Amino acid sequence: MSSRLIGDLLVSNRVITSDQLDKGLLYKDTAGVRLGESLISLGFLDKNQLQEFLFRQNKQSRIGELLVAAGLITSSQLVIALEEQKETGAKLGQSLDRLGFLAEGPFLTFLAKQLKLPFVDLTKQTIDPKTVQRLPEDMARRLRAVILKFSPNEIIMGMTDPTDLIAYDQLVKYLRTPIKIALVSQRSILRIFDLAYRQIDEIDLQAARLEEEVVEYNAGNDSDLPDEAAVNAPVVRIIESLFADAVRLNASDIHIEPDSNVIRIRLRVDGVLTEQIIKEKRIAPALVSKLKLMAGIEIAKKRLPQDGRFQITVQDRKIDVRLSTLPIQDGESVVLRLLDQSGDNLKLEMVGMEPDILKRFKYQISRPQGLVLVTGPTGSGKTTTIYGALNVLNQPESKIITVEEPVEYRLPRINQVQVHNKIGLTYAEILRTVLRQDPDIVLVGEMRDQEISRIAIRAALTGHLVFSSLHTISAVSTTIRLIEMGLEGYAVAAALRCVLAQRLVRRVCKYCAKPRRATLDEEKLVRRYLGDFTTSINLQEGFGCSHCNNSGFLGRIAVVELLEMNSELEDALRKEDLVRFVELANRIEGFVPLHIVALNHAIKGVISLTDAMRLVTDAQEDPIKTKKQLLDD
After folding, report:
1. Among 112, 122, 280, 476, which is most buried by a count of CB atoms within 10 Å?
2. 542 phi, psi to nearest 5 deg
3. Contacting residues for 88 by C-beta, under 8 A, at least 6 apart
4. CATH 3.30.1380.20: does it fit domain 344-632?
5. CB atoms within 10 A of CB 432
6. What distance in Å separates the CA atoms of residue 610 and residue 601, rounded to the nearest whole number?
7. Residues of 240-271 as b/e, b for ≥16 C-beta within 10 angstroms?
8. Do residues 254 and 246 lie in contact, with contact meaning Cβ atoms separated by under 8 Å?
9. Helix (H, G, I), strand (E, B), or coil: what is residue 252?
10. What are phi and psi of 310, to 5 degrees?
11. Tens digits of per-residue pLDDT, 578-613?
């Protein structure tokens, strides 16, 4: 490593100052000694400090110099990456990847070759959770190690840093079996940890312990477990395990449903519920009581629905939890909506819109006034899209006020008001006051009736940018709904800027997806809606793996259609000529209906054709004619 590079790294790590480096380099040239010796002679650092620093740097810099020699990165890129690495605490490969100098895959392939070790791509492996669990979770996460193959005579261990001899010694000491090392990526190993170390067994264990306490208490009493006992350790650990499991699977909701003989715990992952059974039915009152305490609602009120919320931290992520209880035949059903308050989850780019639609939508929300509507059924991601738009507009020079029921995500600088109908704090009452608060941007949670819609449109016509939502099937049918609600066509035409309709559709798992040929019927069906197209049909099917919890799907993508108003559409609305409006909307340049967008995703292998066809069915049931039908007519 050159003297200049060592010096720059000493400065970037605050071991010495830049002034001390300049003096050290001058002394080095004058005395004809190494930089380290000159710095020690000048008293800027001692020998032990230098040796410790060089030991830490040696491993990463050697790899970096080999990368430079191989022509994979330049020497200047290495310096930048090493400095960035020290600031963030990341490994060299992660820094190179983050800076865009060298992707993780090529780096790990090169590193494995230099270390003469195999590189195992965990994304292409089926991992057995029981094998992984032979290593305790805390040790696996601390040492970044995962058991890939286990036998009495040999273990194949994946490590993100095979050169960490201390970690290797700890693994050998714990497992007492010869170990063969393979290199794995940190990104994929963390995903394996989240899936393998689920909390199902822990939940079952704590449920059994809690039932013992319930049985012991009820032996001399006729009532359920007393409220104060609901805060005991087993209940707390069950709840902690429930949330940990849900966050690891990126679940949006936790359902706790007492049945006649069991408790059903169901997690909604990518829009689909997965179930776990707890046999200890008698623990349900204690579990529900503890959750009510956390939400600050009445424990004794069991015959009426209640709502509450609280915040927890799981795996360093702040999660807002909305709680809803409902009296059912066998007790109280509880649904917990998990809202990740991480800023990354509220970025408009995270929704998954097509680049062209995203660009056009950003233009519409940048306009100083008008009405922007986001529509779709419950669970279609409307709130995420609207909050993503507000995040884009959330600047010191803009005052934003929201009126919601309830407030879901909490954003800094935004004045958020929650509706409380019981005390007279209704949508309409709040909106009248909001317009006197000198806002630039207003969010109306939902245009649910004529009164609220009139106020929202009046706000849009008087110089405000207004966001709102509606539960409609498509963008075109949204404007029809507004007219049917009794709003004047001329007012809607003057206020409305655009309507964005969306659905959330499951992505095919990229780790276990395999291509399949379209059947003749499927190809005929696709061509019926898409017509002749140049793109080949590339259907993909997920067969289930450790990454997608054997479902074949991983994550969701927003399927979006954007209808932007123009002079012809506005003229048709002013005249309330709805037939003409529908015809013009479906033929407008750049407008692509939801089901066509979904089919395009399907033939590219992003989503399944089965899921895409559900949107085709929705379009057929929509009374508004589709673009293809109009052209056929």
Report:
1. 476
2. -85, 130
3. 95
4. no
5. 11
6. 12
7. bbbbbbbbbbebbbbbbbbeeeebebbbbbbb
8. yes
9. coil
10. -155, 170
11. 889 988 988 888 898 988 999 989 998 999 998 998
